[in-house]
Amino acid sequence: MASIPLIVQHNGQLRGVIRAYDDFGFKVFDLAAPPRRLTGSEAALPLVEAQVDGRRVEPLVSPANMLETGPLGESWMALTQRSVSRLFATYLVSEDPQRRLDARKASTLMHQVSLVQHVLEQPNLSRVLLADEVGLGKTIEAGLLIKRLVEDRPNLRVLYLAPARLATNVANEFREKLDLDARVWIAGGGADARLSSDRLVVASIHKAVFGANFQAVVQAGPWDVLIVDECHHLSDWGADGGKPTQAYRLVDQLSQSLPPDGRLILMSGTPHQGSEVRFKNLLRLLSDRRADLSLANGRVVFRTKDRVTDWRGLPLFPSREIRPPTPIALGSLYEEWYDSVGDLYDSFIIPGTRGRATGWAKGQALQWAASSVQAGLGFLCRLGIRRLGWNLKNQALRAALSALRPYRGGTDDENLEDLLLRIEKQIGIDHSEDSSGADVEDVPEEEQDWRPDPAALERLLIQGVELVNSPAAYAKWAALSQIIDAADGEKIVFFAQPVETVGVVARYLAQTYGEHPSTIIGNQTDKERLEQVAKFQSESGPRFLVSSRAGGEGLNMQRAHRLVHLDVPWNPMELEQRIGRIHRFGSRKTVIVDTLVVAGTREVETYRIAREKLRLITRQLDPEQFELLFGRVMSLVAPKELEECMIELRPDNLPAASNEIGALVANGYKAWQEFDERYRSNAQQIRAQSGGEATWVDVANFLRLLGAAKLGPNTSQTRFEFQDDEITAVDEDLPTLRIGERLFACGDSGGLPPNPAGGEHVLQLGLNVPAVATVISNAFLSTPLCGAGYLKRPTAELGLPSGPVGVLFFLRQTVRYLGERAAEERTTLHSFVISKEGQSALSASQQASLIRELINAGRVRDPASSSLVELMQEAEANIADQLRRLDDIDMQNRVRHVVWPLAALVMV
After folding, report:
1. Which of 71, 229, 306, 372 could form a disulfide with 162 if both were Cys (CB 3.0 to 4.6 A apart)?
2. What are the Helicase ATP-binding domain coordinates in residue numbering (predicted)?
3. What stretch of H or E contains 6?
4. Is residue 700 part of a domain?
5. Domain-located, residue 62
6. Is 869 domain-assigned?
7. How confident is the model over 4-39, as pLDDT tens digits?
8. What is the mean pLDDT of residues 544-569?
């Protein structure tokens, strides 16, 4: 192998040799283009050219041999200068593997960019589940991954499936923060994607599974990358994967049609959903052999907020303060009504099923009645319309609809006929291709035959009207005012399940505090929903945001650090999703969570019992750890079983129900421990990744030496640090560089725009900024070829042998074959000291220190012949051979190493 040239010229382009072999007596080469980040405009050329006729390849002299041949048409000082510059440019790129020195509109968070690097470098992660905790920024992680893949393959086709209400927001983040040309495929007028031809399509999965759209999405392929956001909505209830929903079937079919080098990325902050069967079927999508789930275990990346840090090792997220629930008594009339709502369903029980009607439907009716009187009354009205076919001839329904006005965005005096038509339309909205944003009841097929007792339902409607006009309908909001007043003017997010509660609270806040809050409800368009969030997030926007369950996923509300649960969803994962809207990157203070509950309802007792049971299990934890763990454990409690316990929770059945809840909490804790232990290994590998040795100071020195950059006035950059358990804003100075007419901040701004300097606009610097990338490319592709040099020995103590020494630098480019295509996996810089005593490899930190000294070391004008040259020539060939050599893992993963000899420098 030593006789094989390392670098060649082909069609006027610099190429590295992957391998050379005989083909019927002719020498044939497989060649690699230089690393893309080093060559800029070269990125359009193919990475690998196979079976190149050796007669069209010109071997180039290596740096060690250049020490013997000497410079051609220039002085040794000029050649040495170009050689060191080329080495410096290569060092910046190769010692920035996670691209933390790139400029981005989005924050360059360590846990995000290191994840991307990990996924790209691990061959087994072509199928992966990103299960990072809610709020860690999985959308940005997916976007960064897409950006890296597209850089390597501009013609890549990506399909990103998201719930309908999130699709537009995802596309906007891709466009605005990552400069990705994402097109949207959703129901309604907001779509701009051509499914059959666009490269990056963000599609509503609800539209994709609707009618003929299913086959249209499949036939629009082939897709190279399939990403599924909030993948916990993919359900298959069969123990062996035999009962899939349409969404699961679609993703399964698309994933099986991916090319050999295709990628499947599943994302969810709550993937388990408390159902081991559903979770295992989700893992089947990751397994190359569906029956063998062990193949999927290493493909789950799971990290929690308390385990991620910033580049300086400081925590990124503040803590949580989960306050005990505030119970509010609404009086005996309300309690009688609430119990009667449950009794309505107990009259119809299907033998052997534990009462399907008394299960799902009763549970939701009680949730709505506990949220607000108006929500419970609205639920009962829709029940009569849907199940009994009632119209305005029914006087109880007429009275209830009159009392509910303004209903879901209507007016105080809305015509009752119009209101009835609107409700009938809303009841049927779950049959459309864009149903995910609606706040309506889901109706399982097994419930269709059940009919409530008409007389009992009429009595409940009449009682509900009486309650709406009584203090009981507003007692909860008086307690809410105490929480608001104690918040001292800070922004607050309120969450409720039903949209009726959102409307009632929004009107109460407007009347009491004199400003209309932002509101999120299901029948809004994506644009309207994003506008409401943007208003709230702005400094001058409304103080309050009130959201139904439609805002529980995918939206960013971290301008607030206070959240109030206006009710308690019976699926505990929804609680975590709610808190994740404000407890995410950008949260600046301890997140404070309050909960309002109605005394005497099942929610109060259930969560009191659950907390007591978990405290017994985790007595060794401090309070802060307990609150973190409580949310995580409850997210792994089976929702259906918990709901059954809540339905059965009555004063006469309290001990039995308490034991059942305790068993569920114990199982949830066990599931949490197993999940955490099994899937933590990937997180530890990611955290252990090196960010490289290159620094912003190195970037500044490089640009001042080679890019004609000049120091500019310092700008200030707002950073955030923990002080007394809160994140506090701290202004720090940040140096600037003037390149041409523009001023750049030379440092990590965390994705935030640098402040103006002396009234002048400041841009973010980065290795990917065109002005910088051009300097790097020019240095690496310097012509004529360089690499040799003679320098005066640095005065700094570097631990080098005494006397003259030589240093050989190599760039190793790792290429992995994916099907018939090759992809660049990583580049690493290697250096070796050569002396009469032998040779030794430098560590990454030693290498960085030496390169920084070489930049300013004196050049030798007329070097004398050195006995080191022959040693360096021999060492160069041997070391290159070692660096190219493949091991068993390389062979298994179809990896090849291309070795670029960069520099042979003699220090005297």
Report:
1. 229
2. 119-289
3. none
4. yes
5. yes
6. yes
7. 899 999 999 999 999 999 988 889 999 999 998 999
8. 90
